[in-house]
Amino acid sequence: MFADRAKIFIRSGKGGDGHVSFRRELFVPNGGPDGGDGGKGGDVIFEVDEGLTNLSEYRHRAKFTAEPGEQGGKKRCHGANGKNLILKVPAGTIIREAESGKVIADMSGDNKRQVILKGGRGGQGNMHYATATMQVPKYAQPGQAAQELWVNLELKVIADVGLVGFPNVGKSTLLSRVSNAKPKIANYHFTTLNPMQGVVDLGDGSSFIMADIPGLIEGASEGVGLGHEFLRHVERTKILLHVVDAASTEGRDPIDDIYKINEELKNYNEELASRPQIIAANKTDVIYSEDEDPVEKIRAEFEPQGIKVFPISAVSGKGVKELLSYIWEVLKELPQEPVVFEQEYFPGDYNSNDNLSYTVEQLDEHTFVVEGPKIEKMLGYTNLDSEKGFLFFQNFLKNTGILKDLEAAGIQDGDTVRMYGLQFDYYKE
């Protein structure tokens, strides 16, 4: 089956831990701390690969992890950074947070590369913690935790014109005639599973992309058959081109077919039904009725609604040139920017490891170190230089129970509290 959806787990690399070591050299009996910093963890990056057409690579493997940063070393050696993990996807791939369905990134238009999860920052070695009163610090900062996330990948075909219609009405034949696409064509009642797209060259330097959206069935908007998988591709298109069997070679009513398809589109996404529509009344080469012209019946029904009808034969090519010229005139009046979905979910704000866990460690008689991802994040966006910001941070320490745990650890007035390179003097309220 054509793979246009996948659910995968991604994790960035954890930051390397800082190192605890002391300078030990001949004739230097009391060398100071020389523990190096840990390396940064690798990022998870999504990148568009123009050679890819589906998400099949992600159907047989579900978990992807970037490299962690290396631990710092002796003699102030900095740990190596972890390698970034680059995941290649086709243009048009939407990345959504799995639980909420919110958009993290739309790999369309100019967005060819995006960092989805950032690797953890490396921890500082003990060389950063020496003071006049503590010259042999036995503490180093741990590396920042990795970020992790379950995401859904969805591929939405990017095309100017989307061909819609029931199976076996001639969409594949039309696409193969007007473009460079080579879909498999046969007289069958089932439908192509792969959305096919091709470039329509009008011969004067003008061109547009046309896609054959796989045949719809009644109930598609409710997920019957492969309805949702097919309908999602229509969301990218600027114009909907209904292809109908005007000759009713299989007993279908073309007018009824158009209404049924529009109903499915509306039920799936009401905005789709308002997209510009054109009708290609196909198979006119096999109309033998002498009583009435079925194309005129279609025109009488839809042209008063502002939907232009073109009689064509995808097999012989009759009427196709006029249809393409009209499509091009309509496209020129529409916005040229591709349909791109805005970001709704920001992984950095919802780091699954970003919880209230923290550690309280006593380094010496008067120095305590508090570490934890929530604390680090709080320090990152709080202005401690302002009275309001510092009060906010104090309340955070109190409300989360950190002050209570410091007191349980034996902290006294005037003792020092260290948090990620910052230090405060403790005084009980």
TrEMBL record:
SUPFAM superfamilies found in the cross-reference section: Obg GTP-binding protein C-terminal domain, Obg GTP-binding protein N-terminal domain, P-loop containing nucleoside triphosphate hydrolases
Keyword presence, Cell cycle: no
Alphabetical keyword list: Cytoplasm, GTP-binding, Hydrolase, Magnesium, Metal-binding, Nucleotide-binding
Gene Ontology CC annotations of this record: cytoplasm
Organism superkingdom: Bacteria
Its EC number(s): 3.6.5.-
Main location: cytoplasm
Location of the protein in the cell: Cytoplasm
UniProt cofactor(s): Mg(2+)
Residues bound to GTP: 165-172, 190-194, 212-215, 282-285, 313-315
Residue ranges annotated for the OBG-type G domain, each copy included: 159-332
Known partners and oligomeric status: Monomer.
Role according to the record: An essential GTPase which binds GTP, GDP and possibly (p)ppGpp with moderate affinity, with high nucleotide exchange rates and a fairly low GTP hydrolysis rate. Plays a role in control of the cell cycle, stress response, ribosome biogenesis and in those bacteria that undergo differentiation, in morphogenesis control.
Classification via NCBIfam families: Obg_CgtA, Obg_CgtA_exten, PRK12296.1, PRK12297.1, PRK12299.1
Family classification: Belongs to the TRAFAC class OBG-HflX-like GTPase superfamily. OBG GTPase family.
Protein name from the UniProt record: GTPase Obg
Gene that specifies this protein: obgE
